[in-house]
């Protein structure tokens, strides 16, 4: 690789890394806020919180990376243009083809990274996420039934004297405020924790249930066995895999034992993972076309930068629209790939016109 090519590649790469880190960090922070309630409501540790939000990273990086590369490309090219470096490169006889090579090389590397994330790390992270979330739901009693402590879960306050094992506790006090108009206090000598398909249940043994009715009278009911649901039917443990948990081979060739609608969803997810990383190439050619063509302007190229951003947004909308149409009309699926191919061809013609014929004779020896 020529000295100038290494220099360009290094500038684009460094800026892309910094930009991706900043954008992923910002998006990751905002996305992780919705998990705070899930963790805090169950009295879990901060380690459980970070364990959950860690699984968001592969998908976030795969989504953000093409856009951060495009923004970094505009930033570096604008810097080169303002510092007259582009004029220097062009004045020594470097063609647009040679100036484009380092960028396309980095774009190809980034595209392969996104493919690696989409094909392997993203479904793997989703599988671990579902497993961890189900484990947290199943082990919720480990955090809310702590001996000698008052803990609150779903508007119920618990206190236990002693925890014998993972299934039995003694000296249980429950203050149930799920109905604010009629709170209930329950005391039991011991309780058994039972895992059901739709959640967890406490089987209370030898105790009493105290409730104040609307007239202000205390109703006291003694019992030998009483059941109390900790997790109701609204919180069902997720056992069915979602499309995001399948690997690319499973998406493009769905299992034969699933329905037609599910197969269509899986195939759509597979083509989405195949298509969206390719959007980085029209983004790259668009940014290069803005800065490597036309005349130099001392006032800068802010209008063209705005045009490039608008063009990138249009490309994204067009690609997603074609992809969504192919979900309903399978015959339109090749259109999604054709749109990107046609856009790349148009941008390459606009960028490299009048240079392909003379390119072998203009190659620099720098």
Which SSEs are present, and which pair or pack?
Elements (H helix, E strand, L loop, with lengths): L2 H30 L3 H5 L5 H9 L2 H26 L2 H7 L4 H43 L1 H5 L6 E3 L2 E8 L4 E9 L7 E13 L2 E14 L5 E12 L18 H5 L7 H16 L4 H13 L9 H27 L4 H20 L6 H4 L4
Antiparallel strand pairs: 1-2, 2-3, 3-4, 4-5, 5-6
Helix pairs in contact: 1-4, 1-6, 3-6, 4-6, 4-10, 6-10, 10-11, 10-12, 11-12
Structural commentary:
The N and C termini lie close together (10 Å). The protein is an alpha+beta fold and 366 residues long. Helix content is 57%, strand content 16%. Strands 1-2-3-4-5-6 form a 6-stranded antiparallel sheet. It has 2 domains: 3-138 and 240-362, no CATH class; 155-229, no CATH class. A hairpin with a 2-residue loop joins strand 4 and strand 5 (199-212). The chain contains 13 helices and 6 strands.
Features of the shown structure:
57% helix, disordered C terminus, 366 residues, alpha+beta, 6 strands, 6-stranded antiparallel sheet, 16% strand, 13 helices
Helix content estimate = 55-70%
Q: Which structural class is indicated by helix and strand composition? A: alpha+beta
Percent of residues in beta strands? 15-25%
Question: Helices and strands, in N-to-C order?
Answer: HHHHHHHEEEEEEHHHHHH
Radius of gyration: 30 Å
Widest beta sheet: strand line-up: 1-2-3-4-5-6
> Quick one: how many beta strands?
6
Q: Which regions contain 5 or more consecutive residues with pLDDT less than 50? A: 232-236, 357-366
Task: Give the biggest sheet.
Answer: 6 strands, antiparallel
Mean pLDDT: 81
Count of individual domains: 2
* Helical stretch tally: 13
Instruction: Determine the N-to-C terminus distance.
Output: 10 Å
Morphology call: elongated
